[in-house]
Each structure stands twice: as structure tokens, then as C-alpha cells.
Write a structure and sequence with these properties.
- It is elongated and about 45 Å long.
- Strands 1, 2, 3, 4, 5 and 6 form a 6-stranded antiparallel beta sheet that branches.
- Strand 3 and strand 4 form a beta hairpin.
- The relative contact order is 0.21.
- It has 3 helices and 6 strands.
- It has one domain: Thiol Ester Dehydrase, Chain A (Roll), CATH 3.10.129.10.
- It is an alpha+beta fold and 139 residues long.
- This is Acyl-CoA thioesterase.
- It comes from Hymenobacter saemangeumensis.
Amino acid sequence: MTYRTRWADMDPNGHMRHSAYADYAADQRVVSLSQAGFSLRRFAELRIGPILFREETRYLKEIGIGEEIRVDSQLAQLSDDGSRWSIVHGIYKADGRLAATVTVDGAWLDLDRRKLTVPPAELTAMMRELPPFEPERKS
């Protein structure tokens, strides 16, 4: 997905604030899930939702206001039953240079029991369709 950075994304130094990287990664995850048939409404019907245990950002290149960025997702890990996962988001400058990575480790939460759960088979299958994480990928 491509985005154009906004004034609200900037810090006092004139570059993208740390939490904006996480916001773009989260938006990319939500939109991608929705495009694959797992909208927020569908998750509410299934009574499950994603939760994060860890989020880590590596900053490589500065991003400024009004820049076009591209955010992708790569699957780093997925448990056999699909209940736990790790996704690495690449955030790229318009010229293709990797500006940052946002790594998230998560699982699926049963919203009624408030406990971890195994997702429906079609959600696990969709997760397995994500491109595999390639540490040196520069696309």
C-alpha cells in the first residue's frame, strides 16, 4: 500500500515521528485483512481479534513531510495452528530504499473468553499466503 505522509506524522525535528511508523504498519495490516475478507465487522462476527505481544521498529532512512511511502507485509513466523504469528512490515521511500522495518508478534484473542484462540482455517490459510520474510529484501 502507498501513503503520503502528513503534517500530523511529523515530530519537532521535521521527520516522521516514531509512532507514525507503527500507525502505517497497523493500517496496512487492517486493510490487507479486510481485502482478504476479514474486515473489522467479520472479526466482530467471529468474536476474535488480533493482539500484539511485541512491536519493534528499526529506523534506516529519514522520512519527511509529504513523502510517498510504501508499506508491505512479510510473514516471519506462523504457528502450525495459526494462533501465533510474526509479521515484518517494510516501509519504503518512493525511490525503493528501505526506510524502516516494523516487526510485530501477535496472536488471536477470543473476545468473549478473553483468552488466546485458534483462528478459523480460512484465516490461517490467508496468513500462509503472505510473502515470506526475506531479511535482505530491498523492493
